[in-house]
Design goal:
One of its GO terms (cellular component) is cytosol. Belongs to the diphosphomevalonate decarboxylase family. 34% of the residues lie in helices and 19% in strands. It is an alpha+beta fold.
């Protein structure tokens, strides 16, 4: 994880500690999963002008929605939420963080474009990571690593999916930022608060599988943390289809939207206090027992209620499009034809649908989507991600769907599954920043 490790450093990364080399002090064990990253700080001044770490983090999709904060600065939610972590083979953020005594200022690049490093959410994450790093250093006898705390950081981050289009890009992005910075600065504590300060739902992307974000009760937010309800291996038959309706940036951002909802929607307050607690308990049961019909119905009901609170906001907010509503119609007609709940939709703050189904149901549902939303010109690229075998659609199901086809209504489908939490990329070639601390040229 350290840029260009020597053989000695590689051994240190493998073992987690190393003996003195050429008079250097003994290295401390690095963070869990990160090996001996701290060795980089001890040798950095004389041998390694840049220390870089690259990590990836996943997208998560809430099935019990988070909408509304009781504390804007600390990003504390008015209700708990529960999400499914999607597999990074299909959707992920990759982030490289590098520190050097030669850097003159903090800088950040997102998808190849330099952004304002002074953004309040980004600054909150940086301050919290550096505070935790100082706390850890002050607890030790030796303090050579503290030199790194005065160094500026360069950050480069890329998404392999549309940004700001309602696909939880900020959640993956800030989870990846928190996880990567923690490894650069040697922070080992729970990162829920760091990620949450960037984007509330980002704390859920710190874990794989099925994840609960507990709203907490404390004013300082110390108990507002994420925890894993079940690992990614718990429900291997569960599949996820992302139906991309639009990759355009949404008109009303999540932060502004939920703030207006908290101020003006009585339905939102009722939802948070009277509805969500029971739904959290029921959704946890459905996940633990792999009860798909229960999971699916509750997922759809909670999505619908979330969007109802958006309409109850004044002025009203509408994240759904006509195509979004046609997808909802398709799902309900598909289920009615089969006489049971076989697929479920959920929509975050955007028009794109996330559909849950069991593995054996996916081919027929994808065929139904193709029937209702024929690809205009990208038929061979319409389906991305996990392979889905083509199957014919029965005349009975076509009749049951009862729709006028909408060509091009869905741009493409991403087929994926439940996946793991953040990962460290050990290969130095994976770094997005070069030895000079600037983004590598695009391949």
């Amino acid at each position: 994880a350290v840029a260009g490790p020597t053989a000695d450093w590689a051994a240190c990364e493998t073992e987690g500690s190393c003996e003195p080399i050429a008079g250097r002090a003994r290295c401390e064990p690095g963070p869990a999963g990160g090996g001996g990253l701290n060795c980089g700080f001890l040798a950095m001044a004389s041998e390694k002008p840049v220390v870089a770490v690259t990590c990836t983090a996943p997208v998560n999709i809430a099935v019990i929605k988070y909408w509304g904060k009781r504390d804007e600065d600390l990003v504390l939610p008015i209700n708990s939420s529960l999400s499914v972590t999607l597999h990074q083979d299909q959707l992920k953020t990759t982030t490289t963080a590098a520190i050097s005594k030669d850097f003159t200022e903090d800088r950040i690049w997102l998808n190849g474009r330099e952004e304002d490093v002074g953004q309040p959410r980004l600054q909150a994450c940086l301050r919290e990571i550096r505070r935790l790093a100082r706390k850890r250093r002050s607890a030790g006898d030796e303090d050579p690593v503290a030199l790194g705390l005065s160094y500026k950081v360069h950050i480069a981050s890329v998404n392999n999916f549309p940004t700001a289009a309602g696909l939880a890009s900020s959640a993956a992005g800030y989870a990846c930022l928190a996880y990567t910075l923690a490894r650069v600065y040697g922070v080992e504590s729970d990162l829920s608060e760091v990620a949450r300060r960037g984007s509330g739902s980002a704390c859920r992307s710190l874990y794989g599988g099925f994840v609960e974000w507990q709203m907490g009760e404390r004013a300082d937010g110390k108990d507002s943390i994420a925890r894993q309800v079940a690992p990614e291996s718990h429900w291997p038959e569960l599949r996820v289809l992302i139906l991309v309706v639009s990759a355009e940036k949404k008109l009303t951002g999540s932060t502004a939207g939920m703030q207006t909802s908290v101020e003006t929607s009585p339905l939102l307050r009722f939802r948070a206090e009277a509805v969500v607690p029971a739904r959290m308990a029921e959704m946890t049961r459905c996940v633990q027992e792999r009860d798909f019909p229960g999971f699916a119905q509750l997922t759809m009901k909670d999505s619908n209620q979330f969007h109802a609170t958006c309409l109850d906001t004044f002025p009203p907010i509408s994240y759904l499009s006509d195509t979004s509503r046609r997808i909802m119609h398709l799902v309900h007609r598909f289920n009615a034809h089969h006489g049971q709940t076989e697929v479920a939709y959920t929509f975050d703050a955007g028009p794109n649908a996330v559909v849950f189904a069991l593995r054996d149901t996916v081919p027929e549902f994808v065929a139904a989507v193709r029937h209702c939303f024929p690809p205009e010109s990208n038929g061979d690229k319409f389906l991305k991600g996990l392979p889905v075998p083509p199957v014919p659609l029965s005349d009975e199901l076509k009749a049951a769907l009862d729709v006028d086809p909408t060509p091009g209504g869905i741009k493409y489908i991403i087929a994926t599954q439940v996946g793991p939490g953040p990962q460290i990329l050990e290969d130095p070639h994976a770094h997005l920043l070069g030895p000079d601390g600037l983004p590598k040229p695009a391949a």
